[in-house]
Design brief:
This protein has 107 residues and is mainly alpha-helical. The protein contains seven helices and no strands. The chain is globular, with a radius of gyration of 14 Å.
């Protein structure tokens, strides 16, 4: 895996959406969820963004930091796309609901 620092340096040269996604993945993998959300959000706004992947990953990060409404919104949007991460998004929604119950509904 490429280091977060190397990806940050790459963004100073050219702010490319793929680098944002890769840095988001790296940040998420080391538990820096809020920073990953920023990169995923930026990448989602770019033409050609992989909405399926980005909504799923951003939803996971929102869940990790306790932003339940945002997690639910992203995971539902991912599931509705019907892409490769749709089933995983539905499973993540189910796990959140089972673990949080009514709190998840009001998030």
């Amino acid at each position: 895996m490429i280091s977060v620092d190397r990806l940050a340096r790459a963004l100073t040269i050219k702010d490319h959406p793929t680098v944002r996604v890769e840095r988001g993945l790296a940040l998420q993998s080391i538990g820096r969820y809020a920073e990953a959300i920023v990169d995923y959000t930026d990448a989602l706004a770019r033409p050609g963004a992989d909405h399926d992947l980005l909504l799923y990953r951003r939803g996971q990060c929102h869940a990790r930091i306790g932003a339940l409404r945002a997690a639910r919104r992203d995971l539902i949007a991912c599931a509705e796309l019907g892409g490769p991460h749709a089933f995983a998004a539905m499973n993540a929604l189910g796990r959140l609901y089972r673990s949080l119950g009514a709190a998840f509904e009001t998030g």
